[in-house]
Amino acid sequence: MFELLFAFLLVLLQAAGAHTHTVNNNLTTYLVTITSHTTSGNTETLCAHLLPKEPATFTVTLEVINMANTTLLNEVVTEDFYRCVSFLVPAVSTDTTATIHVNVQGVSETLQKMTKILISPSTGFGIIHTDKPIYKPGQTVMFRIVTLDTNFLPLNRKYQTVELQDPNHNRIAQWLNQSSVSGILDFSHPMALEAVHGVYVITAWDERGRKTSHGFQVKEYVLPKYEVKVQLPDVISVMDKQMTVKVCGKYTYGKPVLGLVKMTWCYVPYGYYDSLQQCLMELTTTSTDKTGCATVTTNLTALFSRVYNTDVDIYVESEMEEYETGITVNGHGRTTATSNFSAILSFEDTVAIFKTGTTFEGKVKAARLDSSPLLNETVFIVVNHEGKSENWTVTTDSKGVAQFRLDTSSWTMDYVSLKAHLKEHRNLHMRHYHYGQTAMSLTQFYSKSKSFVNIMQIHRVLPCDEEGLLKTEYIIQRRELHRNQEFLTFFYLVLSRGSAVQQGHLLTAVKKGKVNKGEFTVHVRQTRDLAPYAQVVVYTVLPSGEIVADSSTVPIQKCLKNKVSLKFSSSQELPGEKTSLEVKADPGSLCSLRAIDKSVLLMEPHQDLTIDSIYSQLPVQRLSRYPNSLGDYEHQPCLPSPWDEVRVPVHRKKKRSYFDDEDSKKFDIYTIFMDVGVKILTSSAVRKPIDCDITYLLDMTEDMVPHPQNPFQESIIRTFFPETWIWDLVSVGDSGSVKVEHTVPDTITNWVAGAFCTSPTGFGLAPNTDLTAFQPFFLSLTLPYSVIRGEMFALKATVFNYHSTCIMVQVSLNESAQYTAQTCEGCEYTHCLCGEESKTFKWILKPTDLGEVSIKVRAEALKTEELCGNEVVTVPERGRIDTVVRTLLVEAEGTTETITHNALVCPAENPVERVISLKLPEVYINGSVKAFLSVLGDLMGQAMKNLGNLLAMPFGCGEQNMVLFVPNIYILNYLESTKQLTEEIKAKATRFLESGYQKELNYKHDDGSYSAFGKSDQSGNTWLTAFVLKSFGGARPYIFVDPKHISDARAWLAQHQQIDGCFRAVGKLFNNRMKGGVSDKISLTAYITAALLELDRSASDQMVARSLHCLRAASYQLDNLYTTALLSYTFTLAGDQEMRDKLITHLAKEAKTTGGSCHWEYTDASSKKTDSLEVEMTSYVLLALLSGPQLPDFGLDYASSIVRWLVQQQNPYGGFSSTQDTVVALQALSLYSAATFSPEGDTTVTVTSGGGYKREFVVNRHNRLLYQEERLTEVPGDYNVKAEGKGCTLVQIALHYNIPPPADFSAFSITAKVEGSCNSTRKALTVTVEVRYNGRRKETNMAILSIKLLSGYLLDKNSVNLLKNQHNVKHIEEGKGHVNIYIDELKKMVPSKYSLSIIEDIPVRNRKPAVVKIYDYYQTSDEAVSEYSSPCAGSDEFSEL
């Protein structure tokens, strides 16, 4: 009972003491301030105060683990003491927690305290800057890395690894050990044409493992000729009786479109799916005015009668059709109709703490639901305290913001309610129409003596060249000062980026009276060095030991020391003209320049390099509060302690937490310093006392109005037209200025140029500058991509005049033997055009030549005395004539056939002659015949010339892609071994390797395997995985290949090796004729083993040794020639001479030898064409002969007989009939070429014919790689080829002609049917192709269905998406004028149908049929061809002409 009474009395005494203030001079008071977060190697500042009652030693020590302690201050103090000391922060390699110890040792007392601070390692930061934020597949990504320290000075840092990762996290490019110059590194990387869409990431690691990353996007996009925007009110309400819709069209260069506009209105109840969309209104048709806009006003009565008391989304769909050309572009807009329209009020920059007697400042913002500001609106401010209300009114400015300053003298309670509202309105016609309100609860700042310091807000960002003046008011109770005290000292600290950079003190006179109240100004200097924030603490230490303080964070304009500027020589230039870009920066600056199409920045504005993005890279911009690891532990008085036995029963509604973590509440001295990240060590009480048993007021959330998110924000869809014009790295030299000259591109657009520079003075960033590439008078042509000979179409030439005056324009079409042109009836080709007008001129064109036809149109502004109406005709000073040249592809009817005659002539002692007969079939398309003669001194020359086009076939799957990849390895190896490799050839081949590598990763599975169509296949494919494994290994000397891809593939293959060492087949074989019996498993194992041996040539590897054991066990079964040929190569690589001799001897007995050539035939081969499997196995025999020691009777002479046959099978491009045979044959031919290479020897080849043709070609060591070609005109005819000299020469004659679709349906049947309406303006047709396999096998290999589009038609993209969903469609390739459909397989005698939609883009007369073709990819002789016609062909009368 006594203990309980004692505790109660103690509580009463403490409460009484809270209201009795006397200065106690018998207490020693100390205060130490230091930042909570500093950086290794920086100079940091610590400030210390001591008010001693007796002489004392004042010591401050810095302690870091595993380092010697550092004494920062050691002073004997006898009177009031204040000092700020600077010290060097110790070096650390990782974030390290250090401890600050304070010790005050007097005669009669010892005071000690410690706190923790964080030391981070010294670091700079890297910025990766790409030329664009978004790319199309096939474009080159250019990027630079700039490295800066925290003061924006350039760092020459070495990056151990810079990598580029695709969206599937594959590393597709890598650069090692790259060192920057003036802080800048420069890189580029070409993206594959088939690059996977998505976000790519560039990552750079420096020597200490610090990482910098940057992402960009790759996707397909189409830039229309012009864009259409629908402008609607952001929000409409039931008060609105009408809605105005404005539809505007603008060309990409910003000028208006003149045309016809169609609009429809639809609505969806707000928050529901678009599937509930209902269309209310009929189609509206109108025309644009001269500004390119059409405006329609609609009555909303019908809408609100249907959607009573419900919010709805309103959609407006529009279609604009350009006059004359008929080109249409769609646009859409959205708005919301609401029956409950409220304004949104919110407090901004308003702290939730007040200090009685000082000024309370804040802002209130008023906005509509669409976020637009409410201007000049009266806002009512209401403060409730102690049952009283105080009212103020303020008015919003142009931003909808109203500032207020309130007198707090009467606010004596701990809590105050602050509210704001707008005057309420009522309207009889409205159900719910009111303005909103907002509220917040304010807490009184704790001061034991009711003394305060208050830093007034600066309601703006401080300019970086202006001194900051912080007005500060104070209230100090007189009883807290000495009786005769005349002055009171206020101290201040200024922090920038976490470090104390300025400090000082100010003296204020002590005034008479109970309250000492006044103002002073703190000067913040050198603001440029403090950006982006100056964090200021103002405080004083009263004689009683109480600390009175306030802190404020002041935003400062972001500036850079290196002042960089850019300026074009003129703001507007004609396309094709020269212009100069002047760069000014600090002397010695290295500058990165970029100029890109403005639409790029409109598409991804946040990706551009700005001063904000530079500052955002700073490790610390400002400090706020402390991390948990640096918290200052103090005993929690509300937790159990010895006093727990004293229990006072009090009803508790809500317990207040010991420490309030709400950022906005600086409610005591401790949180004042914590708010700016400053640690304080003091003997003074700086925390608000906690009374665990006091019942706190409930938070006043019931009075607060939520701030709803605006539900009506519209996503912005922008046109994207990418173009990087300038990407330079230039030095400004000692003068600080340089001019860079460039030619303005032909694109009519606006170019935005920017630059950043590094120099010893620092980093600089130039404001963007613009150049408009524009021709006020210019010409635009509209024509199809291709037509078939005999078809006619309307060529349209539109002339635009954007001069403010009138011009007389004359348009002419260049005469040509390649086409006939007919003027339209009544058409004139000289016309008057005034400002903002356009005119379309037309001709009927009928091409007569096949191939690419050049069409040239010229428009000229004439000098004339004639008037345009009442206007005088002017002539532009510049750009008086505009000429446009476009290419039209004219194709022959039917299907193309190619016959290749190859002869490898190797004269030695005597000349060598060959006769080549060119014959035509009985039926062919007149005018389609072409023949070409070529001569090359190198077997690999033809393939070298056509590295990107070895096959006249599509390359849309993982195995076919390798034909673009692997031959480059063999050619590079060959040229390098023969010392013929030039930088030009190396660069070309390397580009193909990089592109093929990127594309192949699209077909990788997560388990490391590969398949023809990647993850759309159920599993990886053992054959393809082995193919990729060896190919990636072979490419390593020339390009970066991530070792993980090789190890992953090898590990996956190992999982499928069986106990007997053979490999289990997973996934489909490419060529199904390899199936059946043991040969299937053995040929697969032989292929994988050969791939592993090509990779590292180690027969002792456990995986290889086991597979060789499997192959030896099966080697007695030599009934399959393909397997035997493959085994011969595998055992050659393994070094097993016994097995090699046995297999090659057996193969020699099965060889087919005719006319000095040797090859092997497949028993089931087609008689029509050379079988791809025969080429492949013949090539494996050649590889076996050339990859090991020479065998008796099988030397180079025997190999030469094989080569003679192989080269006869080559197509005109250097490849063969399919992918696998091309890859294996070129590998074998490259080995043969290397083995027989001789730099000496000249050869003369003479080609003659009976018709008098004679041509002589000389091949020597200087031109052996030169592709010499000539067109032959005598077809049919016989040509005699005679070679004299000492070297081998490859002579090829390629004959091309078209034939009508053949009626051979022995392998496939194919029919095409067309349906559609011919009455609409833009005719839409559906093409349905039915195919059936009729051949000897149970099913086909992968088949290709190729559909040519009718001339003037475009593919409907929506139909492609439907086609992709068919079960056996694996891939669809869209080309210009055709579509390739990849079909997994076709079962015998089972018909399949495939449909797609096409839309007429340009009318064509005499439209010819279009060809459809189905063929087996790996057995190309299995094919069928048909054609289809437009049902609308008879109605294409060109009535407008």
Automatic annotation (TrEMBL):
It comes from the Eukaryota. It holds the Pfam family A2M_BRD. It is found in: Secreted. The keyword Transcription does not apply. Residues 453-603 form the Alpha-2-macroglobulin bait region domain. GO terms for molecular function: serine-type endopeptidase inhibitor activity. Residues 1-18 form the signal peptide. Residues 724-813 form the Alpha-2-macroglobulin domain. One of its GO terms (biological process) is nervous system development. Residues 1340-1428 form the Alpha-macroglobulin receptor-binding domain. One of its GO terms (cellular component) is extracellular space. Keywords: Disulfide bond, Glycoprotein, Protease inhibitor, Secreted, Serine protease inhibitor, Signal. Belongs to the protease inhibitor I39 (alpha-2-macroglobulin) family. This is Alpha-2-macroglobulin-like. It comes from Scleropages formosus.
